[in-house]
Amino acid sequence: MIGRNSCRQPKEIVDAGHAGTLIGQLERLRAETLGILTAAKISGDSRTMLHAIQRAESQLRLGAELAGALQAKINLNVRVIRSISDLNEDELKAILSESEAVIQELPLEERTKLLAPRTELKSRPAG
């Protein structure tokens, strides 16, 4: 049985890794609660019906809190990069590493062509 204070715990521990698990558990708990509510309605047990309704309300509230916590965790950072000089050293190293991995996967003929010195590139005049 779930105690009153345990309903607050998921909001405090929510992160991207646990979110799917928490939502799944909440959905299963809600389905079970609605099943109890249905059985109580059929049997005419108004006390159990009221408890199931209270639990369903708590689960809805928890679901809303969980959704809000997940929404608050979403942080979108957008940075406009106009040229290679806008990148820091770590970003340049990451790009170089990824590029080297892609090049290594190419067939030898394509790799040789790609890495061959290019005579059509002319140095730009300083200025």
Q: Could you explain the architecture of this structure?
A:
There is one protein chain. This protein has two domains: 5-73; 87-115. With 127 residues, it is mostly helical. The protein contains five helices and no strands. The N and C termini lie far apart (76 Å). The relative contact order is 0.08. The model is unreliable at 1-14 (pLDDT under 50).
Secondary-structure map:
Elements: H1 9-13, H2 16-43, H3 46-73, H4 89-105, H5 108-115
Mean pLDDT: 78
Q: H/E series, N to C? A: HHHHH
The number of helical runs is 5
Task: State the domain count.
Answer: 2
Principal-axes geometry comes out as elongated
Oligomeric organization of the protein chains: single chain
Q: What class do helices, strands and sheet pairing give?
A: mainly alpha
Approximately how much beta-strand content do the residues carry? under 5%
Q: Kindly, what is the distance between the CA atoms of the first and last residues, rounded to a whole number of angstroms? A: 76 Å
Q: What gyration radius follows from the Cα positions, in whole Å?
A: 29 Å
Main beta sheet: none
Counting DSSP E segments of at least 2 residues, the number of strands comes to 0
User: Percent range for helical residues?
Assistant: 55-70%
Q: Runs with pLDDT <50, length 5+?
A: 1-14
